[in-house]
Design brief:
- The protein is mostly beta strands and 128 residues long.
- It has no helices and eleven strands.
- The strands form two sheets. Strands 2, 4, 5, 6, 9, 10 and 11 form a seven-stranded mixed beta sheet that branches. A four-stranded antiparallel beta sheet has the order 1-3-8-7, with no helix packed on it.
- The protein starts with a strand and ends with a strand.
């Protein structure tokens, strides 16, 4: 079992920045690819970013336009999401997730069906 706990959400003005954290416990964190998803009010959950265990490969949703950066610290069992130039449409609950399965194609970690473990989420509200 893997436990994931997100933190760092809150209220921020448009153009501002936030850094989300996801602390993992329960198994060997360093071996797992980690992903961030988000769910805006009234919408389906969508992929945001993913990072391989060794930080060698990352993938982002096209809609982010380079504003977000995913990173990880395996020594701290934590994955981060740095969000810059935030927009009102970034308002959502942000979830981190991981899978107990290895996929050769990193794109498998961009789908909900590919993930096995989820955190409870942290709310990000972008508003003036």
């Amino acid at each position: 079992q893997v436990q994931l706990v997100e933190s760092g959400g809150g209220l921020v003005q448009p153009g501002g920045s936030l850094r989300l954290s996801c602390a993992a416990s329960g198994r060997t964190f360093s071996r797992y690819t980690m992903s961030w998803f988000r769910q805006a009010p009234g919408k389906e959950r969508e992929f945001v970013a993913t990072i391989r265990w060794n930080s060698g490969s990352t993938l982002y949703a096209d809609s982010l336009e380079g504003r977000f950066t995913i990173s990880r610290d395996n020594a701290e069992n934590t994955v981060y999401l740095q969000m810059n130039n935030l927009k009102p449409e970034d308002t959502a609950v942000y979830y981190c997730a991981t899978s107990g399965r290895y996929y050769g194609n990193i794109r498998a970690y961009t789908t909900e069906s590919g993930m096995d473990y989820w955190g409870k989420g942290t709310l990000v509200t972008v508003s003036s």
